Amino acid sequence: MLRYDSTSSSAGSSSGSLSSSSSSSKPPQQDIDGLLAGAGYKVRSSELRQVAQRLERLETAMGNSPADFSQLASDAILYNPSDLVCWVDSLLTEFAEPPPTCSSDFIVDPVNNQTVVNSAWTTAEPHTPQVHQNITYDEQQSLDNQLTVVTAMEEDSGIRLVHMLMTCAECVQSGDLSLATSLIGDMQGLLTHVNTVCGIGKVAGHFIDALSRRIFQGMGGGSVNGGSAFENEILHHHFYEACPYLKFAHFTANQAILEAFDGHDCVHVVDFNLMHGLQWPALIQALALRPGGPPLLRLTGIGPPSPDGRDSLREIGLRLAELARSVNVRFAFRGVAASRLEDVKPWMLQVNPKEAVAVNSIMQLHRLLGSEQTRNSPIDTVLSWIRGLNPKIMTVVEQEANHNQPGFLDRFTEALYYYSTMFDSLEACRVQPEKALAEIYIQREIGNVVSCEGSARVERHEPLAKWRRRLSGAGFRALHLGSNAFKQASMLLTLFSAEGYSVEENEGCLSLGWHSRPLIAASAWQAVPAWDNHMSSS
Amino acid sequence: MVQNHRREDHETGGENKEKRPKFFINDHVDILIEILERLDGRSLCVAASVCRLWCTIARNDSLWENLCFRHVSPPPSSVRSVVLALGGYKRLYTGCVRPVRSRLGRVRRASWARDEVQLSLSLFCVDYYERLGGSNSNGRLVEKSSPSSLMFLCKPVNV
């Protein structure tokens, strides 16, 4: 990996002068450490401890600035590694860690270099190490531009960023937009000193963007949520691949639906957000293999209308139908195109009273919440007509976060911690471009939570406890998800190579989290029979 | 373990007719199949490279079916038609069952054997569905490098 490039030719003259000036003092050769000498390194035994400490610091510095590392490998002038002391010192300088040297080292080292060069390199290569004290002023300047801030400073910068984000959010809440604006500028400056490839720098960058959008573009923020349906599907698919949250949601919901359909010959699943229909192949296969044979399966998929003449719902339906045909499951598909869930009316679903109905909502119910608690808010309307269908089971999977608080600062703080945890968990994903696109997917959510208000803000996540109250109040009772679902979820997580995921069971509901911070919760519900209060015609 | 078999010298076959008959495993395909049925996946792949006969036998899906359900009680007969429709046992084993087993090996519990196969089957089905998308769609959505739901498992070696 080490390269002697053309600049070493300029060093020829300087090293020549060095050798002439310092030939007087020669270190005693017997002081060279024997073991390292066998490996090709000439280090004096008296210096071993220093070298070890500096190597450790170098490792830390390298680990904290991976972006610069590759730059270093291609751009930097590198030194003779046989002389470990000088080599480590030089690299530490390039990482902005000034090595603690005393001048006597430099007088002696060039001689060491010289003797090493003469003895180690027997070929006629004109390589001579350029001692860094001979670097010209211009070269040092360009090296400075490649420098990163050392570790301690970087940690501080991360913490400072978080504090500044909170302060800025507070300013936004209180209306002090001028201070908020200047804070945005400061934070963007601070971002250049922090590693934005991973960790707090990356998340902070997204939150800074969202805040600045809120301040400068007002709270319509349409562009955040305005990606085309096609784009959203792609991002959703990559989010599905990159991390286990959606897989967990699908498999858990499928298990509950499978158990609820036991003994029924005509079943109907209503999916509130079909996307690519990735949830349903596994259910179709499980129904195909259930003892007693598969039922007649009807699937009604709700999704946004697709522009430019494509009927994406129908395409997905055809694919699922082909799969069902391959495994001999009688299957019928119906697509309902609606841009908002509250626009869907129950007659569009054409539910047959004799069939067992399952309603499946993966991260859709929160979109119906508004900030005001009015009597006939969309959520109440939708829940009441779901109840009217008398489903055997309703599976609800929602983000486990409180992003629907009225106060902006509270919401912002909660979102910062939630999405930091989620980005942390995403670090373990090693497949690209899935990871990058999954991050864009999450970024859009962040943008909506932070920079949108009113009807534009659809990401109104509420925690499981709130959903429990809401659903119980609407005439539903909770079904326990069962040990099979838990076992399956645990197995699924073990397959993901990251060690930090955990499944928890909480009064019959399962939640998936990262390092014991739950991020997504799955629950199952059934309509309570003979409930008259909310039976309003819709 | 692959059983060694020795090739007899055929030039001397005529002279040695009165001696006791030589044994050549390829003459006894039923025994060969019995042996190959008991191999593990990796050895089965290696066995497929021995000669054309072994290659043909090793490609037989029923051998891979045995591998999938080796430590599990025999599944209902409906499973076979489903698996064959979704791509066959060899694909199921190399794509799902083997990586699932090796990943879960660290935390394996005895009761999980059956569930491992069921989970593998579900993942296999999702993968089949995604492959369907590649052939049917207009190419905008799913291409060769499209995301596969099995990518989070090890990359299977296709023999």
From TrEMBL, chain A:
Primary site of residence: nucleus
InterPro entries tied to this protein: DELLA_N_sf, TF_DELLA_N, TF_GRAS
Motif VHIID boundaries: 267-271
Chain segments carrying region SAW: 451-526
Transcriptional factor DELLA N-terminal domain boundaries: 33-99
Intracellular or extracellular location(s): Nucleus
Keywords: Gibberellin signaling pathway, Nucleus, Transcription, Transcription regulation, Ubl conjugation
Compositionally skewed regions (Low complexity) per UniProt: 1-25
Domain of life per record: Eukaryota
SMART domains listed in its UniProt record: DELLA (SM01129)
Its biological purpose: Transcriptional regulator that acts as a repressor of the gibberellin (GA) signaling pathway. Probably acts by participating in large multiprotein complexes that repress transcription of GA-inducible genes.
Domain commentary: The DELLA motif is required for its GA-induced degradation.
PANTHER family: OSJNBA0084A10.13 PROTEIN-RELATED
Similarity comment text for this entry: Belongs to the GRAS family. DELLA subfamily.
Protein name as annotated: DELLA protein
UniProtKB/TrEMBL annotation, chain B:
Organism annotation: Gossypium anomalum
Classification via Pfam families: F-box-like
Protein name: F-box domain-containing protein
Source lineage: Eukaryota, Viridiplantae, Streptophyta, Embryophyta, Tracheophyta
One CC-aspect GO term: SCF ubiquitin ligase complex
Gene Ontology terms: biological process: gibberellic acid mediated signaling pathway; regulation of gibberellic acid mediated signaling pathway
Span of domain F-box: 29-67
Source superkingdom: Eukaryota
InterPro entries: F-box-like_dom_sf, F-box_dom, SNE/GID2
